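Hi team, as promised in this morning's meeting, here are the two structures we talked about. I've kept the exact order from the run log so nobody has to guess. The first one is mostly here for context; it's the second one we should focus on when we meet again. Sequence first, then the predicted structure tokens.
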Amino acid sequence: MLLTYNDCIDKYGSDYKLKKEILKGTIFMQAKGLYSTTRNISDIEVVMSKYPKAVFTNRSAFYYHSLTDVIPDFFYLATKREDTRIRDARVKQSFVKSEMFDAGIEEMIYNNIRIRIYSKERMLVELMRFKSKMPFDYYKEIIQNYRRITEQMDFGLVEDYAYMFRNGDNIMNQIQMEVL
């Protein structure tokens, strides 16, 4: 179980007593201001606790949605443009305009951890937007997996997300040619 510094102070009474508990091995420091009751804890849980407003996107979202079997090297997180820069070597951050940030956010349980992630529909639009920045075989793997789940997707939402961007017509044309 993850605890913040304030949770630990409430539980143990003072910083001194918290440090004694750490030395005893009853509580473990996972990151600055973040503690756990078990030694080993998932990095995903730590990242979600440290950055609760961030949303998984890009390669992380494709992997967590089971659209690819390529494990990402980093945690790809999207934040609003006004948010501060994340200084964590494990995280690749992208900044999104505030009016586009909230579109398609959903909560998902991944390995018993509640994460914020962009929906499959939003990620299809993002795939088309950043197609040229991905390796071709990686892109093709994701497209083939989207073709398998077309009946489960809401293409009205896909269209709404596509038209949030300047080149919405081009994005929808690409989706129709490659996925449908």
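And here is the second protein, the one for discussion:
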Amino acid sequence: MKLESNAVIQIQKPIDEVFEGIVNPEKMTKYFISESSGPLETGKEVIWKFPEFEDRFPITEVKIERNRSISFVWDPETIVKITLEKLPDHSTIVRVNENGKELNEENLKWALENSGGWANFLACMKAYLEYGIQLRKGAFDFMRKS
């Protein structure tokens, strides 16, 4: 049995703006990462940095379907897939699924933490795209190593 982490939210913006908010590092650095070596594009590898960690994370196996889905690997055991669904009122449903880890105690903890992490990602993206608010700023400073 494979574990998976899931989160979903509705954003009151058109699908093309939501898509751009995910693939464009100028937007993503306002609510999720602090740095990116480039935009998310099919077949390209990028490096992400988060404000609360010293480590840099390679993002590989990127696959993009414009205004439909974004998938990538940042943990060799899992695949992250973000899907977008356009609604009649021009808002967008964003679903995040990360799966692939085997069921064991350590990975069960991972699944719970990542579900919360992806819910946070979606809430921060919604706040930024809808209102220009940067919820993540300073939210995880306590995690930095002194």
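Starting points for discussion:
The chain has a mean pLDDT of 94.
The chain is about 25% helix and 35% strand.
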